[in-house]
């Protein structure tokens, strides 16, 4: 009602002012007609603005498939509580492989997600990575690279740098795109034998990312992504992610292998999960990035 009152006031105020300034009674009818036309135009504009605002705020709610996909995708992330070990491998175009040991744990707390990774290189050097994502999808990253005694905040301009030389970047470690403001459901498509919803996510002004958009092919039956294409801003090539070995553990779907590759570039990178627990009962003390560095120092 307050919004309607504002638009009514804006519509009729100019009419009152114009009529009060009319000096000749004989011109009253002409002024009234002109003002009526002007007020009608303003009323129409106000109505269009109100309708566009209502449409924008209810866009997700008006599309049940879009609402269901976003809700389920966010709930999947909000239930994370795992430990895992695996391998992160860069495969060159000529078949040469460079593998790293990959250890990670994640838990969703009341204020958002914590994800702590440790990547051990061929020479036993270790890179530690702590990602935080708030309940609204805002991301912060800390890292501790080989030779660094303490962790430091990773500057935003480095978020898209290759993680230990692979096709995965630092910000690829979290699925914050499902929390972005702008979500659009495209026409359904098949990906392989799977019938998929196609979701296009675009960041809002408050979202920090190097990606202009993320398009996800989400299996209609299990509502889990099987293929994702991330478009970098500017003229950078797109990045493609393919999910293999989908499985359900404890009612939660996950992939046992994820392949990442830059379009137009030979080779790819593969993250393989070898072992882990989907119910790790983790607490905040489990996400102290300095623990990894302390253990590394003790091992020397």
What is the H/E order? HHHEEEEEEEEEEEEEEEH
| Gyration radius, rounded | 27 Å
Counting DSSP H or I runs of 4 or more residues, the number of helices is 4
Which percent bin holds the helix content? 10-25%
Beta-strand content estimate:
35-45%
Overall shape: globular
Q: Which oligomeric state applies?
A: single chain
Low-confidence stretches: 1-28, 40-59, 293-300
Structure summary, number of beta strands: 15
CATH superfamily of the largest domain: Lipoprotein localisation LolA/LolB/LppX
Can you tell me the CATH class of the largest domain?
Mainly Beta
CATH-level-2 architecture of the largest domain: Clam
Derived structural class: alpha+beta
> How many structurally independent domains?
2
List the helices and strands and how they pair.
Layout: H1 2-20, H2 28-57, H3 64-78, E1 81-91, E2 97-109, E3 112-120, E4 126-134, E5 139-144, E6 152-153, E7 182-191, E8 194-202, E9 211-219, E10 225-232, E11 239-244, E12 247-249, E13 252-254, E14 257-262, E15 268-277, H4 290-299
């Amino acid at each position: 009602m307050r919004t309607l009152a504002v638009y009514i006031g804006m519509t009729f105020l100019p009419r009152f002012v114009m009529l009060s300034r009319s000096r000749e009674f004989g011109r009253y009818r002409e002024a009234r007609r002109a003002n009526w036309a002007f007020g009608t135009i303003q009323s129409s504009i106000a109505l269009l603005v109100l309708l566009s605002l209502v449409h924008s705020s209810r866009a997700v709610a008006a599309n049940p498939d879009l609402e269901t996909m976003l809700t389920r995708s966010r709930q999947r992330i909000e239930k994370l509580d795992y430990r895992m070990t695996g391998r992160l491998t860069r495969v060159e175009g000529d078949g040469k492989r460079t593998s790293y040991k990959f250890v990670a744990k994640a838990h969703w707390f009341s204020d958002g997600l914590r994800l702590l990774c440790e990547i051990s290189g061929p020479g036993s050097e270790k890179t530690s990575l702590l990602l935080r994502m708030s309940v609204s999808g805002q991301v912060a990253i800390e890292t501790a690279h080989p030779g660094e005694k303490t962790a430091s905040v990773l500057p935003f301009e480095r978020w898209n740098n290759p993680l230990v030389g692979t096709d995965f970047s630092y910000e690829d470690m979290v699925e914050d795109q499902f929390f972005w403001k702008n979500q659009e459901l495209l026409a359904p498509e098949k990906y392989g034998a799977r019938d998929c919803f196609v979701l296009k996510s675009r960041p809002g002004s408050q979202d920090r990312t190097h990606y202009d958009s993320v398009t996800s092919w989400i299996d209609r039956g299990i509502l889990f992504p099987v293929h994702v294409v991330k478009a970098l801003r500017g003229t950078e090539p797109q990045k493609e992610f393919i999910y293999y070995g989908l499985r359900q553990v404890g009612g939660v779907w996950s992939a046992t292998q994820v392949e990442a590759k830059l379009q137009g570039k030979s080779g790819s990178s593969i993250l393989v999960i070898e072992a882990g627990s989907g119910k790790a009962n983790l607490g905040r003390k489990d996400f102290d990035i300095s623990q990894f560095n302390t253990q590394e120092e003790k091992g020397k």
